[in-house]
Amino acid sequence: MRLLFIAVAALLVSCGSGKNVSDNKDNAFKNFNYPEVNFINKAEGTKGWEIYNRIVPDPVALIQESCLGVVKTLYWSDADSIPSVKKINYSFEDKRGISAKGGSVPEISINHIKLYTLNVNDLRDMKWEVKYP
Question: Which string of DSSP letters, residue by residue, matches 76-123?
């Protein structure tokens, strides 16, 4: 999972075009343009979706927040030459398997696959995994 995070972080470096968000508190990134995020829920009605939805009530905001965080880490300001990702397809599945990343600028895909058990005792660990897969 940590390797997936590294791959996604490297890819999200490219996040730089799409919807302009003006409420950014950091002036160096006040004109940062978020890519369009297309969230696909392939786990509706599963226990995994119920748990994921408690942890991440707004998956689009999670991906946008992650994009900006990576860009702020790697660039000085939104005036830098940030590669332009126009769209991120982000899907969630509750099954056995491996999470994956695909595509390249201008469109990438992130498929978060996780089988959540019914014996979840500490959602803090799961929340950390979802935010930093």
Answer: SSTTS----B-EEEEEEE-SSS--EEEEETTEEEEEEE----S----H
